[in-house]
Amino acid sequence: MIALKVISHLLDYPTQELWDNRSELIDALQEADELPVTQVAKLMAFIHRLTQQELLDAQSHYSELFDRGRARSLLLFEHVHGESRSRGQAMVDLLNQYQQAGITLSSRELPDYLPTYLEYLTLLSTTECIEGLNNIAPILALLAERLKQRGSDYHTLFDVLLCLSQSELDASQLAAQVEKEPLDDTPAALDAVWEEEQVTFLGEGAQCGNNKIIQHQRRFAQETKVQYFNVGNSLGTGAQK
User: In this entry, which stretches build a coiled coil (predicted)?
Assistant: First the structure.
């Protein structure tokens, strides 16, 4: 799907290469017959608005949106497994799916990064691609509504992804739920994530590192609530496409 390829680039960290090739993205979308004309127009308008910004401003906005807190993370398993042990195995299973499709990631790339997952789906048949999007539709809808309430234009990309998924989910149905969510990118919330207890190496207060990690995670859990989804057996759980 052409549109999916374009969206995967638009959801990645903004670079000069994207700015230099914006006309090529728009030209490609003119051939994206998998989307209604209205949805194609939304993507084109997003590209224009994004690339009219100064690159440094766009990069700063991107980091503010997706790299602070967990609520808008582009790591899919953040919304599925959280910090559970099953996350590691899910990563391995998804990597195996990528390898079977001929995709090799570097040691620094995470397989559940949404743009990477979208790139993977473009290599599958149309039916499998739609199924792969449908499997993550609950996450897409949640991110769409969170971005919309944040006032970010990036919600457009998630609205289009939901359209491509052919899911019956409507992000607006989550509006009331999202309004009640505590913010996880405030200074207090971020401090709760990164704060470390004072380590006592001698005496009765000494504790092992594992206990410190558990306490750290509990502090974060009390600060913000992450919604987790069961996306079935098609996303990093060993299912074959």
Answer: none
Provide the number of structural domains found in the chain.
Answer: 2
Write the single-letter amino acid at 108: R
Tokens 């919330």 sit on residue: 189
Structure tokens at 3: 């549109």
User: What is residue 75's DSSP assignment?
Assistant: B
Alpha-carbon span 116 to 21, nearest angstrom? 19
At 113, is the secondary structure helix, strand, or coil?
strand
Provide the domain limits for residue 213.
187-222
Kindly state whether residues 143 and 210 are assigned to the same domain. Answer: no
Task: Specify the amino acid at residue 240.
Answer: Q
pLDDT digits (tens, 9 = 90+) for 134-164: 999 999 999 999 999 989 999 999 999 999 9
Express each pLDDT in 37-55 by its tens digit: 999 999 999 999 999 999 9
Closest CA to 79 of 143, 155, 165: 143
Chain center to CA of 205: 40
Q: Which residues contact residue 88 at a Cβ distance below 8 angstroms, ignoring those fewer than 6 apart?
A: none
pTM score, whole prediction:
0.74
Q: What is the DSSP letter of 172?
A: G
How is residue 176 written in tokens? Answer: 């009331």
